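Input sequence (324 aa), recorded before submission:
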Amino acid sequence: MSKEKWLEGLVIKAQSGFFTVQTTRGPIVSTVRKRLLQEKLNTDPVALGDRVKLSVVEEYEEGQVKLRGVIEEVAPRERAFTRQAPPAEGRRAERLPDREEVIIANPDQVVFVFACAEPEPRFKMLDRFLVIAEKSHIPPLICANKIDLVGRRKARDLFGLYEAIGYPVIYTSAVTGQGIDELREALTGKISALTGPSGVGKSSLLNAIQPGLGLAVKKVSEATHKGRHTTVASEMFPLNGGGYVADTPGIRAVALFNVEPAELDGYFPDIAPFVPLCRFNDCRHIDEPGCAVLKAVEEGDIWIERYESYLRLRDEAENVFYRC
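Predicted structure, token format:
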């Protein structure tokens, strides 16, 4: 015998077309109604972090109740951390600018973890992540880890510019415990996505915040890293104080999705204030006369490395935009 019910919940795991939804009845593994798959062809119809409504069938086997769900509705996303979808495995096709891959839906924040040393911080990558967060209206948090290797003063020399721009930065060390309480407080009660290069110490940080948490995240990440020939899962993990933390598999290879070249300067808070001062409304800030951005770079009001990040992303956006 079976009995159908309706429940609402949060998608906490996505794996090969199956989605684990946290509900008042506990986690329920669910599939997606075919209608939803057909309605949203240019994005993922269901993703980690989505709030969904599902029909649930109670199946009774040998006196035990087993729940089986089908996702029928997905609530509108407030925001989403996304990338341009890569081509299918084994195909030479270029990335499609009109296909979005949702890394996580509805996060309260995205935490970008970078090491002060071992490995050296990759600021071009950080700038790329920040542009995605700005475009998606997701509050970013920068975590400068391994400060025990360089000292707090050197760490601030490295990441202080981002504080000056207005981005929050937490300086941490899983070895000494510095900043761990501050990071734990920043994560508690929120849905947070973590990303960053390999070797920056994410797992160690998470273990310091909550014993066993980093190990659980690392297990999923390692499976994803192998992933081209294995089952890949994305998962959010509950925090003891409330909220969830999600690792972001594959985010190291990230291309901007649906960014027009002309709008890119607006996603750099340190560049945007100078844009209205340019002589031409369509200024690209490359070699145009009367460009206030170029003048600000020359006078040191815009950090040259940030300007170089802008140029790099502008070139990428133009290649995609004009190819279409």
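Checked by second reader. The mean pLDDT is 87.
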